[in-house]
Amino acid sequence: FVHKMGTAIGFLTVSSAVTMSAPFFLGRVIDTIYASASDAETMTASLTSLCIMLAGVFLCGGACNAARVYLMQSSGQQIVRNLRASVFSSILRQEVAFFDKNRTGELINRLSADTAVVGRSITDNLSDGLRAVAQAAAGVSMMFYVSPSLASFVLLIVPPMAGLAVIYGRYLRSISKRTQDALAQATQLAEERISNMRTVRAFGKELSEVDKYTQKTDHVLGLAKKEAVMRAGFFGVTGLSGNMMILSVLYKGGLLMASQHMTVGELSSFLMYTFWVGISIAGLSSFYSELMKGFGAGARLWELLDRKPEFPLNEGKILPADQLKGQLKFCDVSFAYPTRKEAPIFQNLNLLVPAGSIMAVVGASGSGKSSMVSLLLRLYDPDAGVITIDGHDIRDLNPYWLRSHIGTVSQEPVLFSCSIRENIAYGATDPDAVTTEDVYRAAKVANAYDFIQTFPKGFDTVVGEKGISFLCEMVSFNHICGFFPQNPKILLLDEATSALDAENEFLVQEALERLMEGRTVVIIAHRLSTIKNADAVAVLDQRRIAECGQPTELLGNRQGLFRKLMEKQAFLQEEQQRALI
Ligand SMILES: Nc1ncnc2c1ncn2[C@@H]1O[C@H](COP(=O)(O)OP(=O)(O)OP(=O)(O)O)[C@@H](O)[C@H]1O
Question: pLDDT tens digits for 534-554?
Answer without folding.
Answer: 899 999 999 999 989 998 888
